[in-house]
Amino acid sequence: MDENAVPGTGPLSGFTVGVTAARRADELGTLLRRRGAAVQHAPALRIVPLADDSELLAATKELIHSAPDAVVATTAIGFRGWVEAADGWGIGEDLLERLRGAELLARGPKVKGAIRAAGLVESWSPDSESLAEVLDRLLAEGVAGRRIALQLHGEPLPGFVEALQAGGAEVVVVPVYRWLPPLDPAPLDRLIDAVAARTLDAVTFTSAPAAASLLGRADERGLLPAVLDALHGAVLAACVGPVTALPLQARGIATVQPERFRLGPLVSLLCTELPARTRVLSVAGRRLEIRGHAVLVGDALRPVPPAGMALLRALARRPGWVVPRAELLRALPGTGTDEHAVETAMARLRTALGTPNLIQTVVKRGYRLSLDTPTDAAYAQA
Q: What architecture is domain 50-178?
């Protein structure tokens, strides 16, 4: 048995995924690890405790003092947190009384459950779970002169408030779970460094503020150009939904999003997207699949150190062709001008792969992948 191979590979084995979430990060990390991924977690934000949130208290008191005509509840956890915070401030019953007299619109079934758990009944909820449909309904009813409360959950709803105000409504924003930069930026800095160095295969985002926070911190550190360059190709940006993706798309970054805006579908999407981005070659009678920090040789996952992976990727860019030592030296991270470093890294790469004849030494010229047929080289080169 090959003691260096990792048995029982999952769809994300050999890939490293960054997690920027502050809330439900453990759940997302567990889902990724169960499918084989290595996870680097760095919360891009911190949540302001509800009991200490003066803005939420002020908005709640404003609605109690002047009752809303309609209330839009966007998330179950946000609605529950709002009611619980009001209870803690001793104004819970006053808030519920105001909500009972308003048209209560719930974005989806989870929000409906939270509303009913509070002893209330929703007026309407769209089957699509789309806030756009909620907005369409309000505008169709007519909002001129109406006072509408909008329960947020940490992230903005672009165009929602503006559309209501343009229709003549007075909008009261209820900012449940406001988010601020993390108290300790060191984990986020390490994640940004990993994106810039392209040692991550994907970064997940579950809120628009988290995406904006990562980009903002990268800009503060002078790393924004490198981060944007990486996210434009080498590092996949995976967002839980379209609103979350907006700060990235504003920078021209293409993102992937699941059809259902949930953590499970987000992980399932990564299980499809990341393997589809790998390079697969037939080398010395073996199927070689080059993943983020490991290589599948046949069915065995072989972890490869960063220097070895840099060499392998350089060889795979020109499969079957001889790659000179000088070019391979330039591919090695943090090396000088001594080509002996290439020989050392190549020896370790061959050991990691477990099959030395996958890479041929061409005397006085360099190295090449031992592709099985000329057709393989032509196909890979195309």
A: 3-Layer(aba) Sandwich (3.40)
